[in-house]
Amino acid sequence: xxxAPRRCTPAAxxxxxxxxxxxxxxxxxxxxxxxxxxxxxxxxxxxxxxxSVAVEHFRAVVRNEPDNADAHxxxxxxxxxxxDLARAIAAAP
Length: 93
Known about the structure:
The chain has a domain at 33-91: Serine Threonine Protein Phosphatase 5, Tetratricopeptide repeat (Alpha Horseshoe), CATH 1.25.40. The chain contains five helices and no strands. The chain has helices spanning 10-23, 39-47, 51-64, 69-81, 85-91.
């Protein structure tokens, strides 16, 4: 027995659009989760794919804000892109 393809309801399409919008662009303008002076330069380094620079900035944030999970996440992301997987795993929240 062959089923006819299902149609997406407007609500389902809206949900998909919201989820896609929430994940569009890894480094957006609304990522201010720290007032630390190294936060913005760290994000700029991520945007520019300057992984070693990002590591230095986010290490400073993590040192001063050890409970900031976002800082740990960005630090791990920079380490991973620098191909330093052992440190990436250690830095992850």
